């Protein structure tokens, strides 16, 4: 149980916890939520659209979000860090714009100003990841919770069936209900964006875009090509040097195996003495 092969998930969890604690200690939590009537219409603080997902404003949401991200690190391990980081970046941009736009243009006017609040936190991004987890990762086992206390008459008796993935969904579902209806709006938008990204229904430039390799510690193609060229050259040199041994052995074997007579051996010893 670790962040093995999941550096992006580790960064997300540590960054979320650190920024949430810093916002609390520095008493700046009031900068990380959106009230349409006050922040958008009156003071024109449009920058809040790009900051409200940076951190949560209470410890319960931080705990549930960190646990949910950690439990869904399998997505990064299956995709690779570069694709996962690209997915998080694209969904962060889309979910930063769409929920405030829907709240400002559609939901607030229809609710006569009652629906005005969008809470802080990356709940939309988290639910985009949940959509991928639901589609990609299979369940290991299922279990049923009986609705009655008596012994079941048949295997198909009344009850609720869950899988081992249910606890992951429960963590995310809690985040969607913490500060509803605003948090529920963000969760719904995040799920839809994740579904559209998976089914390649977003514009091609967004679906195919990837972060630079150095962001996730991948060497550039140029340096990789230089390394491969050097490796091939070294292999060629080692191959040519090792190829000399069979040639020398063949030449030695090709020479006639001459035997020296006793007289030639005595003459050689006499020459050596003088």
Automatic annotation (TrEMBL):
<dbReference type="GO" id="GO:0016020">
    <property type="term" value="C:membrane"/>
</dbReference>
<feature type="transmembrane region" description="Helical">
    <location>
        <begin position="49"/>
        <end position="72"/>
    </location>
</feature>
<keyword id="KW-1133">Transmembrane helix</keyword>
<dbReference type="GO" id="GO:0006890">
    <property type="term" value="P:retrograde vesicle-mediated transport, Golgi to endoplasmic reticulum"/>
</dbReference>
<protein>
    <recommendedName>
        <fullName>Peptidase S54 rhomboid domain-containing protein</fullName>
    </recommendedName>
</protein>
<feature type="transmembrane region" description="Helical">
    <location>
        <begin position="177"/>
        <end position="197"/>
    </location>
</feature>
<dbReference type="GO" id="GO:0004252">
    <property type="term" value="F:serine-type endopeptidase activity"/>
</dbReference>
<dbReference type="InterPro" id="IPR013861">
    <property type="entry name" value="TMEM115/Pdh1/Rbl19"/>
</dbReference>
<feature type="transmembrane region" description="Helical">
    <location>
        <begin position="84"/>
        <end position="107"/>
    </location>
</feature>
<keyword id="KW-0812">Transmembrane</keyword>
<keyword id="KW-0472">Membrane</keyword>
<dbReference type="InterPro" id="IPR035952">
    <property type="entry name" value="Rhomboid-like_sf"/>
</dbReference>
<dbReference type="Pfam" id="PF08551">
    <property type="entry name" value="DUF1751"/>
</dbReference>
């Amino acid at each position: 149980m670790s962040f093995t092969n999941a550096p992006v998930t580790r960064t997300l969890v540590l960054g979320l916890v650190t920024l949430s604690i810093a916002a609390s200690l520095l008493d700046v939590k009031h900068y990380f939520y959106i009230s349409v009537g006050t922040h958008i219409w009156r003071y024109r603080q449009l920058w809040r659209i790009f900051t409200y997902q940076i951190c949560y404003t209470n410890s319960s949401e931080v705990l549930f979000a960190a646990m949910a991200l950690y439990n869904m690190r399998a997505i990064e391990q299956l995709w690779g860090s570069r694709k996962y980081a690209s997915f998080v970046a694209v969904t962060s941009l889309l979910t930063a714009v769409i929920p405030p736009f829907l709240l400002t243009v559609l939901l607030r006017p229809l609710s006569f100003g009652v629906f005005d609040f969008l809470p802080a936190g990356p709940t939309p991004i988290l639910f985009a990841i949940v959509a991928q987890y639901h589609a990609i990762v299979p369940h290991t086992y299922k279990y049923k919770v009986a609705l009655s206390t008596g012994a079941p008459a048949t295997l198909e008796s009344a009850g609720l069936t869950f899988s081992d993935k249910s606890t992951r969904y429960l963590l995310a579902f809690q985040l969607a209900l913490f500060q509803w209806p605003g948090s529920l709006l963000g969760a719904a938008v995040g799920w839809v964006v994740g579904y559209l990204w998976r089914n390649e229904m977003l514009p091609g430039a967004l679906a195919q875009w990837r972060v630079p390799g150095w962001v996730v510690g991948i060497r550039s193609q140029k340096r990789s090509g230089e390394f491969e060229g050097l490796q091939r050259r070294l292999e060629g040199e080692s191959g040519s040097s090792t190829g000399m041994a069979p040639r020398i052995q063949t030449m030695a074997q090709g020479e006639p195996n001459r035997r020296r007579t006793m007289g030639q051996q005595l003459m050689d010893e006499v020459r050596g003495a003088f």
